[in-house]
Amino acid sequence: MLPVFQKIEANINHSFYVEHVKFRYFPNPLQFHPDVEILYVIQGTGTRFVGDSIDKFGPGDVVIIGENIPHVWYSDAKYINGNNDLISEVIFVLFKKEVFGEQFWDMPESKAIYKLIQLSQRGIKLTGETRREVAANMMSICEVKGFKRIILLMSILEAIAEKKEFLILANPVLQNSINHADSERLNRVYEYVVSNHDQKISLKQAASLANLSVPAFCRYFKKRTNKTFIQFLNEIRISFACTHLVEEDQPISKTGYRCGYDNVSFFIKQFKKVTGFTPLGYRKKYSV
Predict the structure, then answer these.
(1) Residue 239 falls within a domain, yes or no?
(2) What phi, psi does 178 have (nearest 5°)?
(3) What is the pLDDT of residues 257-282, one digit of tens each?
């Protein structure tokens, strides 16, 4: 995953960036930036990529994306193609840790937050009561002004650092493979796979999108994403299958077929490999 570098400028009257936005679907390409990002999803569903992590997102999700880690949010097709009134809505905060100065991070009271920021370079997804607390504070941070905004940001970070209710999303190796020059190459592959996960997708098709031979593409993709293309494709398909299993009461075979698997036995095998559950076991555990 080779992303587009994104430079984010804070408003001249603020030391960090806060925005509450609504749009039909997430528009961003695969990107990275030197800011730490906290993002709260109010409305919208889709697939989230952080480093080598692939996961579905939905309302209530709160994640922290550290410095220079590749990431992108792809909205579900119903937001992009559907003739409906669906919207996506998010609040995000972006800040550079340097804005607080080196002496601030050297203080004993700041050590836990500093460790959290370092850990966020692998991506963090909040869970439990901390997620609900931070979501409420993300709503509030849009409303406060002046020094109260800094206090609220530190309260958010302190709550996360102290309670440790979160999941680590990605392995730490991808950051070193960032290359500005060819970001478009794997953006094309990503977008194609997400949009066509329910169709037959061959290595030859993927390689052609990257303008490489199949052997060269396999080496290239593994080096940049820490995964084989087939592993990546299966994880995308299984992430969509997870959503179908929880939201819809349809036969397991139909779920597999809708996600690009013609053979139900192979679908069940891949599902268990990725999630640790059988499709039926996953539905029983996570269905409301």
Answers:
(1) yes
(2) -65, 135
(3) 999 999 999 999 999 999 999 999 99
**What's the pTM?**
0.79
Looking at the fold, whether 156 and 197 belong to one and the same domain comes out as no
Q: Is residue 173 part of a domain?
A: no
In the block, tokens 């052609």 appear at 208
Distances, alpha carbon 171 to alpha carbons 62, 64, 180, 216, 285, in Å: 19, 15, 21, 24, 26
Identify the DSSP state of 110. Answer: G
176 within domain boundaries = no
Indicate whether 152 and 261 sit together in one domain: no
CB 141 within 8 A of CB 92: no
Domain that holds residue 252: 181-286
Strand 4-5's sheet: what is its strand order?
Answer: 4-5, 31-32, 71-75, 46-50, 53-57
- State whether 208 and 160 are in the same domain: no
Question: 251: domain CATH number?
Answer: 1.10.10.60
Digit-coded pLDDT (tens) for 96-145: 988 888 899 999 999 999 999 999 999 999 999 999 999 999 999 999 98
Q: What single letter denotes the amino acid at residue 90?
A: V
CA distance 29 to 4: 7
Residue 152 · residue 16 · CB < 8 Å: no
| Residue at a domain's end among 119, 147, 168 | 168
- Position 88 in a domain: yes
Question: Alpha-carbon dihedral of residues 165, 167, 172, 175, nearest 10 degrees?
Answer: -100
Q: Give the separation between CA 39 and CA 91, rounded to whole angstroms.
A: 6
Is the separation of the CB atoms in 138 and 38 below 8 Å? Answer: yes
How many domains, the chain? 2
Whether residue 153 is found in the same domain as residue 275: no
